[in-house]
Design a protein that fits this description.
There is one protein chain. Helix content is 33%, strand content 33%. The protein is an alpha/beta fold. Strand 6 (112-120) and strand 7 form a beta hairpin. Helix 2 (93-103) runs antiparallel to helix 5 and helix 6 packs antiparallel against helix 8 (214-223). The chain is elongated, with a radius of gyration of 21 Å. 31% of the residues are buried.
């Protein structure tokens, strides 16, 4: 009996160590290998422990094979009996954030900062960046020479479109930046409602709204304001 009890206590202590380790990694990027599927849920070997990547946390349209390497962020960590249950995500905005930190040296070195990020996984992300050094073009640095930095991120995300825009504390500047590539004529802000009305030319309307309203939706999220296009 004593041995069994000790074994259980050892397992629980081991589980607690793993739990604490992965809890501190919530939102961090991890690499793993897909070992099996249960339905559409992939089980991922992370080394010391297994994680699961449910269908709801996979980028729409992506498919994996057993043995394939995968990168994801740690979404949640729970204790389940003597084990630790780790749920991974590839749709969370933090995945884009972490990939930027890895691929773009200036972000890694904190010269450029991600100020806001909005994502519709598998389709499009908008990332607003700023730089402490006025001489550095924050957007250009993130894109990289001939798009080299951004290409790696887009490839990792299965071709998801990424708009990098310049952050501004001034909404009159930020809103038009967020709506790129559409050109904006005027921004009318209603402070009390937290809403902005944006006037665009006829030929810019569908670009400003975007496919299925995506461009304006992501711009609204990025700015934290409800934007309406007219």
């Amino acid at each position: 009996m004593g041995d069994a009890l000790h074994l259980q206590q050892d397992r629980e202590a081991e589980r607690d160590v793993l739990f604490d380790e992965y809890l501190s990694q919530r939102g961090a990027l991890v690499n793993g290998t897909i070992t099996r599927f249960e339905g559409s849920t992939a089980t991922v070997n992370l080394g010391k422990v297994e994680g699961i990547l449910p269908k709801s946390e996979q980028i729409p349209g992506e498919s994996f094979r057993v043995g394939e390497r995968v990168r994801a962020v740690v979404l949640e960590v729970r204790k389940a009996g003597a084990r630790v249950r780790i749920v991974l995500s590839r749709v969370h905005p933090d995945l884009v954030r972490r990939l930027f930190e890895i691929e773009i040296p200036e972000i890694n070195e904190r010269v450029i900062e991600i100020r806001s990020l909005a994502r519709e996984a598998g389709y499009r992300s908008k990332v607003a960046v700023s730089c402490i050094d006025q001489k550095i073009d924050a957007v250009g640095a993130c894109v990289g020479v001939r798009g080299s930095h951004i290409k790696n991120i887009v490839d990792e995300l299965g071709g998801e479109r990424i708009d990098i825009v310049r952050w501004s504390d001034d909404l009159q500047v930020l809103v038009p930046n967020a709506l790129q590539p559409a050109e904006v004529d005027e921004v009318i802000l209603c402070q009390m409602l937290g809403r902005g009305i944006v006037l665009v030319r006829e030929d810019q309307l569908s670009l400003a709204i975007g496919r299925r309203g995506q461009n304006v939706r992501l711009a609204s999220k990025l700015c934290g304001w409800d934007i309406e296009i007219m």
